[in-house]
Amino acid sequence: MQASASLGRIREPSGTVPILRCLGRKMGLSPSSRRAKSGRKRNCRGCHAFTLVEVLVVIAIVAVLVALLLPAVQAARESARRTQCANNLKQIGIACLNYHDSFRIFPSGYIASKPYPVTTPGWGWAALLLPMMEQRNLHQAIEFQLPIEHPSNTAVSTIVSGYLCPSDEVNAESFLLTDPNGDPVVRAAPASYAASVGDDSSEADAKIGNGVFYRNSATRLAQISDGTSHTTLIGDRAWALTNGIWAGAPQAAMTRAGSQNPWPNATASAPVLTLVHNNWINILTDSDGGLDDFSSLHVEGVNLLFADGSVHFIHSIVTDGPERRAFWALGTRSAGDLIDGVEY
Fold it and tell me: What's the CA gap between 315 and 303, in Å, rounded?
């Protein structure tokens, strides 16, 4: 027995191994506990990892949510822009009525002191309204006795935010107007609004119109016998489709198509820079580029100011029919025509 015990003692490991085991037990680091802790650590790392498939699924879900939300966000932004545009026109309407209170007439479509078709000096309704648009300093900087294109009238290149639609894609600065030969006429600031000369029978560059604004017009409220709530004054005419200005009709200047007009070579005479007629709304199939028609980058329509100071949104009119004829009637001041067929 003793020999066996001695043999057992002889077989007992010697050196540092028993000491390490002893220290490990005191520190709670037995082989089994180390294996357990190592296993838990591996399991913990496994819980927080994502496979490639899971990442791709998450990305796909986020993409679907963005695709669903983006149109709603864009629609909300456009609604806000359209409201701001309507507010711009309301301010223009107040300015028109204040002008009428002061002078007993609405401002002229544009002022011409030379025989027709010369447009000199050419100052338009928007330039005449400047004091009523809180732009008195700009108004005083203009020499109205001189033509728009005179070198002294550099003020016409000044941007007026109240004449720009928030939805329109407009130059951030003035742009160069040219004559039919492409020679420079004047640099002028852009505008997103134009005034109506009347219905389709009244051309924007004609000597007279059956609406409120035209060459040397001097329309009084009492002359709007069709009713101020049934007569349009001013509305959207997108600069992105027709490069208009607020100054008026500079002599020999050409109205040209905007960058988004499908008829890039379409042109018109100087009065179309600031005047339109009630015919189409957002027409893109007319070979004249729709330069003398109301247009906008709003969704399916334009904001229009009426003679009573109200602003209404009227949907696009791109086909002939009762709606188009009713829109003609909204352009006249005293024709006694019916407006059935158009909602506003």
Answer: 9
- Coil, helix or strand for 80? helix
Q: Is residue 65 part of a domain?
A: no
Looking at the chain, how many residues does it have? 344
Report the C-alpha gap between 260 and 296 in whole angstroms. 11
Q: Which of 3-17, 206-220, 238-252, 310-324 is least confident?
A: 3-17
pLDDT higher than 90, residue 54:
no
Show the tokens assigned to 164.
Answer: 């720009």
Which of 315, 298, 160 minimizes the C-alpha distance to 241?
298
pTM of the model: 0.81
Whether 176 is in a domain gets the answer: yes
Query: What single DSSP character describes residue 100?
Result: H
For residue 277, the Cα-to-chain-centroid distance in whole angstroms is 22
Helix, strand, coil % over all residues of the chain, rounded to 5: 40, 15, 45
By the 10 Å C-beta count (0-12 exposed, 13-18 middle, 19+ buried), 284 is classed as middle
User: What is the tally of structural domains in the chain?
Assistant: 1
In a domain, 188, yes or no: yes
Residue-wise pLDDT tens digits, 218-241: 999 999 999 999 999 999 999 999
CA-to-CA distance for 157 and 74, rounded, in angstroms?
32
**Is 16 within the bounds of a domain?**
no
Domain boundaries, position 162: 89-331
**Which tokens belong to 274?**
């600031």
Distance CA 203, CA 186 (A): 24
